[in-house]
Amino acid sequence: MRGRTARTRQSPPVTALDDLLVLTGYADETAFGQLYGEVVDRAYGLVLRVIGDPHQAQEVVQEVFLEVWRKSAHFDPARGTAAGWVLTIAHRRAVDRVRSSSAARRRDASWHDTGWDVSQPDATFDAAHANIESQSVFAALKCLTPLQLRAVELAYLGGYTYSDVARLMQAPLGTTKTRIRTALLRLREQLEVPSVETA
Fold first, then answer.
1. pTM to 2 decimals?
2. Please, are residues 68 and 89 in contact by the beta-carbon 8 Å criterion?
3. Would you give the end-to-end CA distance of the chain in angstroms?
């Protein structure tokens, strides 16, 4: 059982959001869904102000809540509020996205080598954003192998180019592209995202 810092009389009052985030730290998906519903609008507003692009802001918010899910066990209500903790992650992610925009452009250019019609948007991660309040996104991520999950995390959450992902995972570039493409196809199937038609 994970330990939590004991609350003292000097600790700030614990809010309902704090309790939801603490429960999320124990892998309570219902609490996570409620937390998401309470904080997502504020997180999106903050990210949109930093990035200025609604589509990218939606992607970043999805990344934020995946990080919240994974790191929620580190939250300590004695040191700050749940809303502040989540919004700090949101601000850091938004700044990272702005800084990595050139890497994202290089990554987009590399899609031309995969045989996909990159003129069409990839709706996979938009679908994950739309379904994050449900359990479908968690089930979808669990369908990936550890190597596929790591490759997708590096490319889409870490902002790395495919060449960087290949180097970090010590795998050939072609293998890395295939691994990510297969992972996206699996996520599409799990999330019931229509396939992008290729030429």
1. 0.47
2. yes
3. 53
